[in-house]
Design a protein that fits this description.
By secondary structure, the chain is of the alpha/beta class. It has 19 helices and 14 strands. The protein folds into 3 domains: 6-131, Alpha-helical ferredoxin (Fumarate Reductase Iron-sulfur Protein, Chain B, domain 2), CATH 1.10.1060; 146-240 and 402-468, FAD/NAD(P)-binding domain (3-Layer(bba) Sandwich); 255-396, FAD/NAD(P)-binding domain (3-Layer(bba) Sandwich), CATH 3.50.50. Helix 5 crosses helix 9, helix 6 (77-85) crosses helix 9 and helix 7 (91-97) packs antiparallel against helix 9. Helix content is 33%, strand content 14%. It binds flavin-adenine dinucleotide and iron/sulfur cluster. Flavin-adenine dinucleotide (FAD) binds next to helix 10, strand 2, helix 15, helix 18 and helix 19.
Length: 486
């Protein structure tokens, strides 16, 4: 156990963020660099090393949290890093981006603020990179088997790293021009600087994983041919079909899917454009959708110099406290103030968009909305509450409905989909096509990075067993696990 009295003598302290007026002028991560290290040992010391550590169950990866808290308390960063990597290929991604269901499940959280698990995680991994503890781990011998991974998001990368280390020859096919999936082009630089992806890719390359960018399987490369060329295939193509808003005026110029808008801002940071082809500069911006994707649009619009930013959500505003029907240790749906929300803008709850209004040139100018109430499973409009707000750039951030159905991948492999439009799989993450596996949002539906990594690791074990008859790779989750978490 770290510090037997740590939870009694120290309160919860989290990473400090840079002042708003400073950080909205740049795209760097919002945290004060180096602010965690001086406090993290005491914070890790708040861990009680519970007999039944509920944090394990809260985390889809089954992270060995009390073990690395103990190492972090003792400032044994090397030991902590070894324990961290035992269950997570990419703690620098989850340590920055995860909503931390482990903290919602932390036993300390029953009657006082939970252990800052996520901050401890990111400190351990940043220190490990800094001290050179993260090194390539190439396999000792090759199996002679080949695997193609389709998609380079967190699920594809985790599967590829596990399979490469198990001795298989792995090639990752990615239709975008850079590796990383939503980590690269969805999540803005101010939430995670892309250098963190780049150095992992270098590590993976040094271990032997091959990367092929600019190849869309189904469109540029026939899926059946790929199947013949490789002994197994992992589909980690994400859930990229965005939900639309088919209301009058949707066709006006200036209304974009969030995933049309966010990648362009990320491409400016990569040096592809001087200015983004779609920009919020000087415009009244409306973001439709109150989730993570919406918050990323809000933060991006602030940095581009929007005149105003309004985020709309159809659901009512959640409570600030854990609601009674979502008791500890479940992940509660509470009111959250993300770094993007700290930076300004207005959030409007329980409203629905009725239509858009444009000018004579076909550019959107206003969004018409109405207040709604959720009754008997449907949203009822409240008469007399209609109003319009200025909207010169609108981003739709209303979620995703499943794998891309337009590039032919599903048909060419002959994949069966489940009732929710995701690729169906068995307990080993194998699809209806023998030797073809699925991991991440493509099989689970729109989810989280931590689930994608857990699925990639579990699918890798399924592939390894399929290729060799046995596997020593871990499988943190099953394909239908939802656990206590989001
Ligand atoms: C804007 C945004 C912000 C988010 N923020 C967070 C967050 O803060 N924290 C969090 O936990 N989760 C967040 N999420 C969710 C998280 O990013 C996803 O759950 C996660 O990335 C899913 O990983 P994946 O590997 O399954 O798929 P993806 O990351 O979607 O990667 C799939 C990859 O497959 C490629 N691909 C698709 N089809 C083909 C094909 N036919 N051939 C070749 N390549 C193909 C795509 O180009 C893509 O690169 C966010 C999502 C969005 C959209
Ligand atoms: S539940 Fe919280 S206090 Fe208990 S072991 Fe996990 S992190 Fe430590």
């Amino acid at each position: 156990m770290a510090d037997p009295k740590g939870f009694l003598t120290h309160g919860r302290e989290v990473a400090r963020t840079r002042p708003v007026d400073e950080r909205v002028k740049d795209w760097k991560e919002v945290y004060v660099p180096g602010s965690l290290l001086p406090i993290i040992s005491k914070q890790a010391g708040r861990c009680m090393d519970c007999g039944i550590p509920f944090c394990h169950n809260g985390c889809p990866l089954g992270n060995l949290i009390p073990e690395w808290n103990d190492y972090a308390y003792r400032e044994d960063w090397s030991g902590a890093s070894e324990r961290l990597h035992a269950t997570n290929n990419f703690p620098e991604f989850t340590g920055r981006l995860c909503p931390a269901p482990c903290e919602a499940a932390c036993v300390l959280g029953i009657n006082q603020p939970a252990v800052t698990i996520k901050n401890v995680e990111v400190t351990i991994i940043d220190k490990a990179w800094e001290t050179g503890d993260v090194t390539p781990q190439p396999p000792e011998r090759l199996s002679g088997k080949t695997v193609a991974v389709i998609g380079s998001g967190p699920a594809g990368l985790a599967a590829a790293q596990q399979l490469t280390r198990a001795g298989h020859t792995v090639a990752v096919y990615e239709r975008a021009d850079r590796i990383g999936g939503l980590l690269r082009y969805g999540i803005p630089e101010f939430k995670m600087e892309k250098r963190h992806i780049n150095r992992r890719i270098e590590q993976m390359r040094a271990e032997g994983t091959k990367f092929r960018t600019g190849v869309e399987v189904g469109r540029d490369l026939d899926a059946a041919k790929l199947r013949k060329r490789y002994d197994a295939v992992v589909i980690a193509a994400g859930s990229t079909t965005a939900r639309d808003l088919p209301v009058p005026g949707r066709e006006l110029t200036g209304i974009h899917q969030a995933m049309e808008y966010l990648p362009l801002a990320n491409k400016v940071q990569e040096g592809d454009f001087v200015a983004p082809p779609i920009s919020a500069e000087g415009k009244h911006v409306v973001v439709i959708g109150g989730g993570d994707t919406g918050a990323d649009c809000v933060g991006t619009a602030h940095r581009q110099g929007a005149a105003s930013v309004t985020q709309l959500e159809i659901m009512p505003r959640p409570s600030e406290e854990r609601p009674g029907h979502q008791p500890w240790p479940t992940f509660p749906m509470t009111y959250k103030v993300t770094s993007a929300h700290e930076e300004g803008g207005e959030r409007v709850y329980a409203v629905s968009t009725t239509h858009f209004e444009g000018d004579e040139d076909g550019n959107v100018q206003f969004l018409h909305l109405v207040e709604v109430e959720f009754k008997d499973g449907t949203f009822e409009q409240k008469p007399g509450t209609e109003r319009k707000i200025p909207a010169q750039l609108v981003t739709l951030a209303m979620g995703f409905t499943g794998i891309d159905r337009e590039n032919g991948l599903v048909e060419q492999f002959g994949l069966e989909l489940d009732a929710r439009g995701n690729v169906a799989r068995d307990a080993e993450f194998q699809t209806n096509v023998p030797g073809v596996f699925v991991a991440g949002d493509a099989g689970r539906g729109q989810s989280l990075i931590v689930w994608a990594i857990a699925e990639g690791r579990s699918a890798a074990r399924g592939v390894d067993r399929h290729l060799t008859g046995a596997s020593s790779l871990p499988a943190p989750i099953g394909p239908t696990d939802r656990a206590l978490t989001v």
